[in-house]
């Protein structure tokens, strides 16, 4: 069963001057809000994750009259961190690192939540 189905993504883009023009982002739907909560909790840990260049979070996306709720995973851009200094290649490496580790982090979290029921 697929619990989070991607529906749009962007690898990020540079402007002609080499600055970040568009940040990497993955849009998706979820099978339940509980899955979304687990995903958000796992991503909250990325703020201190070794090897990641930026902090990442999930937010709801307004797609007009679409019936399914859509959420986006993208890097945060706090004032205290110059996201431009990370660079597009660094953000793209982050996406791959999150994809490689997310299932392993979500499994134990889901198991704990189920055990608490």
Notes on the structure:
The protein is an alpha+beta fold and 117 residues long. It has one domain (4-109). Helix content is 39%, strand content 26%. The protein has helices at residues 33-44, 83-116; strands at 4-10, 13-14, 20-22, 25-30, 56-61, 70-75. Strands 1-4-6-5 form a four-stranded antiparallel sheet, covered by helices on one side. It has a two-stranded antiparallel ribbon with strand order 2-3. α1 (33-44) crosses α2. The longest helix has 34 residues, at 83-116. The radius of gyration is 15 Å and the shape is globular. The model has no long low-confidence stretch (mean pLDDT 82).
Architecture blueprint of SSEs:
Blueprint: E1 4-10, E2 13-14, E3 20-22, E4 25-30, H1 33-44, E5 56-61, E6 70-75, H2 83-116
Antiparallel strand pairs: 1-4, 2-3, 4-6, 5-6
Helix pairs in contact: 1-2
Number of domains: 1
Q: What's the total number of strands?
A: 6
Strand content: 25-35%
N- to C-terminal distance: 21 Å
- By DSSP (H or I, 4+ residues per run), the number of helices equals 2
How many whole angstroms does the radius of gyration measure?
15 Å
Q: Residue-averaged pLDDT, rounded?
A: 82
String of helices and strands: EEEEHEEH
